[in-house]
Amino acid sequence: MSITEKESQEIIGRAELNDIEAILAIPTCDPNEVQHVVKDNADAIFSWDYSLSRPALRRLYEKAKVGQWNATTDLPWDTDVDVEAQVSADLAAAVSGLTASHYDGTPVEKWGDKEWTEFAVLQRKWSLSQFMHGEQGALLCTAKITETVPWYDAKLYASTQVVDEARHVEVFARYLDEKLGGGFQINAHLRMLLDDIINDSRWDMTYLGMQVMVEGLALAAFGNLYQFTSEPLLKQLLRYVMSDEARHVAFGVLSLQEAYSEMSDKEIKDRQEFAYEASVRMRDRFMSQEVWERMGINTRDIVPLVLNDPTREVFQQMLFSKIVPNCKKLGLLDRNDSWLRKRYEEMGVIQFENMEDTGEEYTKFALGEEMPASH
Ligand SMILES: [Fe+2]
Ligand SMILES: [Fe+2]
Predict the structure, then answer these.
(1) Ligand 2: centre distance to CA 244 (Å)
(2) What is the pTM of this model?
(3) Which of 98, 149, 211, 320 fits as disulfide partner to 349, beta carbons 3.0 to 4.6 Å?
C-alpha cells in the first residue's frame, strides 16, 4: 500500500515525496552563524551492573582500543593539493558526476570547461563540508549515547567512538582549511535531520538516526570517494576514517538488534517512520542546493532536473547500499506489513536489501586489511 498524503505530511512534512517546492522551501542555513543550539531531551543513566553481559560489544570495544590512530602524525599533511587539477582528474575517473546534456535549455547548457571545473571544486568542498558537519553530529550523538544507553558494555564502547568522531571532525576540518581554502555551511536538510536525532528522548533513536542511517550513508559515500580519487592525502584520510566508521555502524546494528527484538509493533512503527524520514532528508540533501546557489543558478530551475539526472540517480542509490541491508537485519523492513520495504521500493533503493550488512562486514575495513570492492 502506498503511503497516504496525511501520513506523508506527518512523517516528512510534505504530502508528495518529490514535491520540489517543499524541498526547496527549507531555507539554506546562514553561512555566518557560529553556534546552533538544540535541546537534547534525555535522561542520563548510571548502570551499577558492571558484569560482562554483552560479549559482542566488548569485543568491539577491544577492537576500538587497538584501532586508534593519530590524525596529526599518521597522515601525510605535507601533500600538495592542486584542487582544480585534482577534481578534473577525479571527475574523469568517476561515474558519479552529472549528465551534462540533461541540462539543455537551462543556463547550465552554456557552461564550458571553466564553469564545470568551478562547479566540481565547489561540489568537492561542499561534500567534504557535509562530512565534517555530520562528523560533529556523530561526536555529539555518541557523547549522548554514552550517557543514555542503559548497558555498561555499550557505554564503554560508545566512549571510544567519541574519540573517533573527534578525530574525524579534526581531519575534515583541517583538510578543508589547509587544502581546499574553506568550506560550506551545513546543508539545510542535514541540519534538520541532526536536530531531530539529537532532540529525540529515546536512546535507541540516537543510535538509529546516527549509527545506522547517517553513518551507513557516510560509509557508502566515503567508499565511493575513496575508490575514485587519486589524491593521496584524501585517500589515506578516508581509509583511516572508514576503518572507524565500519565499527560504528556495527555498534549500532548489534545494539539495536537486541533492543528491537523486544519491541511491540507500535514501537517498531515509530522506528520505521524515523528511518524513512532520515532517508528522505539524506536524499534531499544530495540536491546540493548551496552549490547551485553559489554558482548563481536558480535552484527552482535546476533541482527538478537534478532529481531525474540518470547519472546522479545511480550515485544517489548507491548511497543506500549500507542502510537498506542494515535495516533488514534489524527487522525494520518487514515488520508492520512491510511498511519500510514499501517506502524503499518507492525510493528505488530496495535492490540493496540482500547485500552484506555491516554487522558482519566491519572487520574487512580494519586497517591493514584489503578493502572490500566498491558496490
Ligand atoms: Fe565519524
Ligand atoms: Fe562514526
Answers:
(1) 7
(2) 0.93
(3) 320
